[in-house]
Amino acid sequence: MGGRKSSLANLAWLMATGTLMMVVRAEDPYIFFTWNVTYGTISPIGVPQQAILINGQFPGPNINSTTNNNIVVNVFNNLDEPLLFSWNGVQQRKNSWQDGVAGTNCPIMPGTNYTYHFQVKDQIGSYYYYPSLGMQKAVGGFGGLRINSRLLIPVPFADPEDDYTVLIGDWYTKSHTSMKKLLDSGRSLGRPAGVLINGKSGKDEKEPLFTMKAGETYRYRICNVGLKNSLNFRIQGHTMKLVEIEGSHTVQNAYKWLDVHLGQCYSVLVTADQSPKDYYMVHQVRSERYGHHPLRKWKGPSISGSPPAPEGVAWSLNQFRTFRWNLTASAARPNPQGSYHYGSINITRTIKIANSASTVGGKLRYAINGASHEDSDTPLKLAEYYGVQDKVFKYNTIADEPPAHDNITKQPVVINAIFRNFVEIIFENPEKSIQSWHLDGYSFFPVAIEAGTWSPEKRKNYNLLDAVSRYTIQVYPKSWAAVMLTLDNAGMWNLRSESWERRYLGQQLYISVLSPARSLRDEYNLPDTAPLCGIVKDLPKPAPYTI
Ligand SMILES: *[C@@H]1O[C@H](CO)[C@@H](O)[C@H](O)[C@H]1NC(C)=O
Ligand SMILES: *[C@@H]1O[C@H](CO)[C@@H](O)[C@H](O)[C@H]1NC(C)=O
Ligand SMILES: *[C@@H]1O[C@H](CO)[C@@H](O)[C@H](O)[C@H]1NC(C)=O
Ligand SMILES: *[C@@H]1O[C@H](CO)[C@@H](O)[C@H](O)[C@H]1NC(C)=O
Ligand SMILES: *[C@@H]1O[C@H](CO)[C@@H](O)[C@H](O)[C@H]1NC(C)=O
Ligand SMILES: *[C@@H]1O[C@H](CO)[C@@H](O)[C@H](O)[C@H]1NC(C)=O
Asked: Which residues form the signal peptide (predicted)?
């Protein structure tokens, strides 16, 4: 119903501006950034350590944009190793060239610069960027990215007094190179040393993180940029009204606690309706095995009378089920047809994937359906564009069903998908640890999370009406989650575990969505400035896509 209302409004708008049809459409605005990426020393939990800084800052600068803006970021790599930035949740329509992961781009080499250029097309909401190679994200280089609604588009809540980005995450004091060595040697990262909020641990902090004026309402955009743990977030003495999850306006329920899993972002409104004093932002780490182990205690300010977060999978799962898309709120949407009617589209393919942990050659590896992803020297997307994919990877490395055995093979893992297919992805988690999955290039509808194993009858319980279109989904221990989406964005897209050691050790893959048309209507050409590497370095450029 809401959909119909909204498209009527659109239509009226089109008719009103119909007389302007002959005027050349102005290009969407550009916003420019220059980033100098360097190492620097920080001591967020009292121990000096090497971090990755952007223009001297940790976390990096916020990108504040508006729907359809063109974002141009000239990145100077002054590290001693290759670098790529990825824009978590930004869909990069037709443009996996700007996605900045090892499967799509050759890295920016030390001492060189590269200019990302992408449009935040038809999106709104809360996102973040991060350095995608190796374990670099563990030591900084990340920052908030927000996309405001255009002025003409009503937002389903009053303008807040201010709008704050809150990047939370577990934190290690090891360098990213020593973490890499640890993982390469087949060991695990172990426990983090603490939790940071916007680069601070609360230890020895004198300045408040944020100030609120009495009676005013503020927006907080909370993203978990950590490596390993789900976090339970709360603001002492205040309730949080949820308004947006990862690019979708939600039904506005009030929460005392929010579980924020790895890679997820939530926007809440908080009104300063308590007596003026200092209040703490409280994060409690969910133990890896989630419900059955006590929450760990962390260094940081102790809060007298602070109630512990509710424990248990059931509590968290119930909270997930209260998240609903506000169908009547207007907002830019990348795929209006798919988004209003996702419940009535026939599924053309079901991809069932299960995560697993095992060893290869005596070393710990993580896998999806028995295959543990390894990056290739030639990015998968470039190999495909140049037509030399046979030398780099095999399509459909894994089946759409988890195998019956536990054996793991190491190779680049690529699923070959059909452009515009409507697919259902089932994430099965047979392990005892919680999982968090992210797909680049898309938002999806998480239609169900349940305990146990999935079977086709479970479709009867799907939320086919108002699931929140988003880009990350958690899967509880010994549980499954189902998401649905239309593969209408051509490109090579990373599907990954947001647990950074799992991803690093192979729990990720790529979905190749090829448009047979080789047309600019479906996909942009490789930018002339893109660095080349591997076997495509000296090959002649393929004929460009045309209209
Ligand atoms: C980047 O920062 C480093 C260290 O502060 C400095 O030496 C270098 O000149 C800067 N480069 C640019 C392009 O600003
Ligand atoms: C972000 O951009 C919006 C829209 O241009 C503007 O109103 C707002 O003040 C900006 N916020 C910050 C923190 O720059
Ligand atoms: C590198 O930076 C310079 C400006 O300092 C810019 O003119 C050039 O286009 C950049 N190169 C790339 C590949 O983005
Ligand atoms: C949904 O959005 C509409 C339109 O902005 C708003 O009036 C309504 O209060 C919102 N509904 C809920 C349940 O949050
Ligand atoms: C979906 O599938 C059903 C049953 O196979 C069929 O009757 C229906 O026409 C299909 N709908 C669309 C939109 O293709
Ligand atoms: C799994 O690995 C074992 C030991 O290497 C081997 O004997 C067995 O044949 C493998 N099974 C499959 C299905 O590949």
From this structure: 1-26
Which tokens sit at 533?
């590497």
| Domain boundaries along the sequence of the chain | 30-148, 163-322, 337-536
Judge whether 26 and 68 are in contact, CB under 8 Å: no
How far is Cα of residue 423 from the mean position of the Cα atoms in its chain? 20
355 touches 498 (CB < 8 A): no
> Which atom of ligand 6 is closest in space to residue 406's alpha carbon?
1
Q: Which of 2-11, 203-212, 397-406, 499-508 is predicted with the least confidence, judged by mean pLDDT?
A: 2-11
CATH of 30-148, one of 3.40.50.970, 2.60.120.590, 3.40.50.150, 2.60.40.420: 2.60.40.420
Residue 36 Cβ inside 6 Å of ligand 3? The answer reads no
Ligand 4 pocket list (CB less than 6 A):
156, 251-252, 326, 328-329
Output the ligand 1 site: residues, CB below 6 A. 36, 38, 76, 78
Helix (H, G, I), strand (E, B) or coil at 317: helix
How far is ligand 2, taken at its centre, from the CA of residue 64, in Å?
Answer: 6
pLDDT in tens, 195-247: 999 999 877 677 888 999 999 999 999 999 999 999 999 999 999 999 999 99
DSSP codes joined into one string, 151-191: TTSPPSSPPPSEEEEEEEEEE-SS-HHHHHHHHHTT-----
Residue nearest to atom 12 of ligand 3 (CA): 114
3-class DSSP state for residue 52?
A: strand
pLDDT digits (tens, 9 = 90+) for 386-425: 999 999 999 999 999 999 998 999 999 999 999 999 999 9
Spelled out in words, what is the top-level CATH class assigned to the domain 163-322?
mainly beta
- Those residues with Cβ within 8 angstroms of residue 499's Cβ, 6 or more apart along the chain or in another chain: 227, 228, 262, 433, 435, 436, 507
CB atoms within 10 A of CB 319: 17
Residue with CA nearest ligand 2 atom 12: 64
Atom of ligand 6 nearest to the CA of 405: 13
